[in-house]
């Protein structure tokens, strides 16, 4: 078992490295071609930021698949299954449409059609749902058109859920990375714990998707230097959907039965283990909730479900008074709690400690939502490891500098001779480093 783990780590590291190294040149390319749209009413950033980060992420996907194809244990995934090729075909199509959208702003219906076609391409190459486990019934085989229809629906829903949540710096990549980490642990357990080789493609997809997100996050954390754009959000949504489809529709649930008896009894007894199989979308529960609320909200107002607004969950957190970084961390917290909590419950459903831990962490999350004005402070020994805004000494020095600048009267001088500040005011000396964020339209 140690050898496959090392090969997964190697695939993960290569994907991270390629994505990270490609993002810098991609950023320069996006600026050169003008893929920097103007600030929109629903945006929370204050400066035009290049998109097309999905180009680097697609490069990481290709590199990860290429490395895995040349490894001793992971090579069998390509020899025994056509799913990696199906994933690459669908990903290339949706990525190309996303690149065009980042540059030319395609119509929403065109993107929806491209998502359905990408899902159809994967279905044609074998990446589709063959059966689903139903509690109390057992494995229910699906007809080809039923399986294809369910596959297309799952792909479209997952892509749009990830796309809708991509509204803050580092939010979509971080949430997908956290959810995929939990998904990887579950898929790896099915493969090596139960000896089911049909779970191997999903495990590989999850490892590569983690690498894509981890490699892009350093460039996308607040303040972001580049956005993934639709080329990135739709790409990682499709990869996540492909992993869920692979393990839901390709793994025979009867092979996991631990109880002797009829199919009905075995399926019912193994219900906790089937939770991530029956409901793979729990891995992206937060984006799914945001998607459903957005559709209901816009339909209720008589708008198109694809009409953009500022009513998403991350916008609500900013309106409550949370800072940009805090809103992202809160979304990370809930995403990790739901994803890892679901996987933990599926493994040890009889343990009351799992339920109590999830309830306690949920209470902590609710408490964090009610404390938007609380500013975290890192301990002194860890201040070098955290961003400057969490360092107590630097914040105290900045506050003292601001107080000193406010106490000293500034000599009157023409605006042309000074440095223009916010709203045309003159900022002189150190004070120019601290503009009025609220007047500048900051989300803080």
How would you describe what is shown here?
- It is a single chain.
- The protein is mainly alpha-helical and 444 residues long.
- It is 62% helix and 3% strand.
- The strands form 2 sheets. A two-stranded antiparallel ribbon has the order 1-2. A two-stranded antiparallel ribbon has the order 3-4.
- A hairpin with a 3-residue loop joins strand 1 and strand 2 (138-141).
- The protein starts with a helix and ends in a 17-residue tail after the last strand.
Main traits of this protein?
single chain, about 450 residues, mainly alpha, two-stranded antiparallel ribbon, 4 strands, about 5% strand, globular
Order of H and E elements = HHHHHEEHHHHHHHHHHHEE
E-strand count? 4
Helix content: 55-70%
Distance between the termini: 47 Å
- Uncertain runs: 258-269, 415-444
What is the radius of gyration?
Answer: 24 Å
> Which structural class should the secondary elements be placed in?
mainly alpha
Average per-residue pLDDT, rounded, comes to 77
Q: How would you characterize the largest beta sheet?
A: 2 strands, antiparallel
Which overall shape is indicated by the principal axes computed on the Cα atoms? globular
Strand content: under 5%
Strand order of the largest sheet: 1-2
The tally of helices reads 16
């Amino acid at each position: 078992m140690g050898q496959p783990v090392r090969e997964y780590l190697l695939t993960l590291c290569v994907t991270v490295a390629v994505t990270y190294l490609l993002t810098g040149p991609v950023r320069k390319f996006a600026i050169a071609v003008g893929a920097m749209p103007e600030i929109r009413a629903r945006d929370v950033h204050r400066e035009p930021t290049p998109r097309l980060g999905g180009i680097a992420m697609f490069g990481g996907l290709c590199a990860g698949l290429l490395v895995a194809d040349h490894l001793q244990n992971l090579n069998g995934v390509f020899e025994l299954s056509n799913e990696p090729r199906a994933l690459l075909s669908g990903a290339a199509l949706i990525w190309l449409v996303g690149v065009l959208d980042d540059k030319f702003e395609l119509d929403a219906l065109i993107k929806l059609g491209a998502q359905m076609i990408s899902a159809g391409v994967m279905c044609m190459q074998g990446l589709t749902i063959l059966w689903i486990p139903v509690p109390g019934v057992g494995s229910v085989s699906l007809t080809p058109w039923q399986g294809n229809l369910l596959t297309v629906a799952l792909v479209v829903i997952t892509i749009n859920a990830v796309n809708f949540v991509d509204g803050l710096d580092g939010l979509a990549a971080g949430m997908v990375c956290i959810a995929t980490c939990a998904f990887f642990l579950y898929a790896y357990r099915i493969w090596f714990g139960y000896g089911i080789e049909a779970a191997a493609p999903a495990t590989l997809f999850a490892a590569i998707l983690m690498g894509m997100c981890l490699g892009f996050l350093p460039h996308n954390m607040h303040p972001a230097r580049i956005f993934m754009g639709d080329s990135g959000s739709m790409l990682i949504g499709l990869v996540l959907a492909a992993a869920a489809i692979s393990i839901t529709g390709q793994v025979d649930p009867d092979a996991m039965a631990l109880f002797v008896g009829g199919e009905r009894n075995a399926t019912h007894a193994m219900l906790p283990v089937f939770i991530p199989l029956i409901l793979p979308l729990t891995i992206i529960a937060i984006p799914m909730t945001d998607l459903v609320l957005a559709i209901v909200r816009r339909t209720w107002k008589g708008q198109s479900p694809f009409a953009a607004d500022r009513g998403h969950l991350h916008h609500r957190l900013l309106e409550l008074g949370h800072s940009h970084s805090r809103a992202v961390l809160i979304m990370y917290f809930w995403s990790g709690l739901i994803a890892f909590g679901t996987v933990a419950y599926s493994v040890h459903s009889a343990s009351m400690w799992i339920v109590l831990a999830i309830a306690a962490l949920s209470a902590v999350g609710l408490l964090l939502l009610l404390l938007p004005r609380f500013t975290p402070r890192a301990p002194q020994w860890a201040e070098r490891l955290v961003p400057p805004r969490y360092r107590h000494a630097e914040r105290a020095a900045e506050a003292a500098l601001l107080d000193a600048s406010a106490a000293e009267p500034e000599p009157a001088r023409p605006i042309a001779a000074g440095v223009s500040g916010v709203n045309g005011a003159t900022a002189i000396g150190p004070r120019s480093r601290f503009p009025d964020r609220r007047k500048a339209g900051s989300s803080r």
